[in-house]
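Milestone M4 deliverable, item 7.
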Amino acid sequence: MGPEVIREGIKVLQAASELAGVELSFEEFPYGAEYYLRTGHLLEEEDLRELSRFDAIYLGAVGDPRVPTGLLEKGLLLTLRFYFDQYVNLRPVKLYPGVPCPLKDKGPEDIDFYVVRENTEDFYVGLGGRGKGRWREEHEMMRELYHLKLGLDLETEGEEIAYQLGVMSRRGAERVIRYAFELARREGRKKVTAVDKANVLTHLYGLWREVFQEVAKDYGEIETEFSFVDAITMWMVKNPEHYEVVVTPNMFGDIITDLGAMLQGGMGMAPGGNLNPEGLSMFEPIHGSAPKYAGKGVANPLAAILAGKMMLEELGEREASEAVEEAVKGVLREGKCLTRDLGGTSKTSEMGDAVVRKLRERYEG
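Output delivered:
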């Protein structure tokens, strides 16, 4: 359903830019499941060089059951994030008026925080493998480790292991943690929460904690705290109002931002930005492509529209960005146009049209 939601996002962005006097131009690229199935290719080096000419990337959604699991995610999403060094994954977790929340007695005043997820390190760097029998040289260390710890002889028939390595650099941790503190300062937030699992994965997340404490010294006016990832999943449900800015390593951020999406009304309400503050950034709804709904016109495009709002803000077009968000709020508050996930019957295109109408009301009266 990527093409369906991104179509509505572009419709809204074009209306906002026209009304706010901003010049936006779009160029569409075919990269996705259909392109892969037709050509056998995902992103080549020349494609990435072509994309580097642009000011931002606006992505629909990735995923298709006809393609092996992970191939599109690694070949498109991770490739783009790594190639353009989009080291911040920014996820606003915000419940809008008129959107039902699954938590009892929680409203928009309780759910309004940011998750800053490190986006290029941790367990997503792609280091690992599977091994059995006669091992290649790069697996030899793991073979010896398993033999020493578990007594496994991996040349025995039927024995096999798989492993994935998490990697974190001091520089990688420092830059995303500093971004989280700068975001808190810019947005007037008073607390930054660091997430990890340093009580068990001591090497990897011990470094994360150490760097967090060092960076925090430069932001004495901001309160800090640590939370283990299992603890924050409990407290996000019980007391979401406790959080203001959360900064987290890559894998844990991937998990808790989906929980955050549910708190704000579902995946159809959850935008995200993959940011390189000094380079090319990419904006997308955090949901996947939901093949069973594709082509039916029932998908909620607000996550894609709000991702466009984030893109405008990152490009420095704050007035147009705020206008898009206010238009979304107006539609939701009115409650006449709601897609199926929000309890209504409106089509994807009808939601896009409703947001455009609210934009025009704001500017034209």
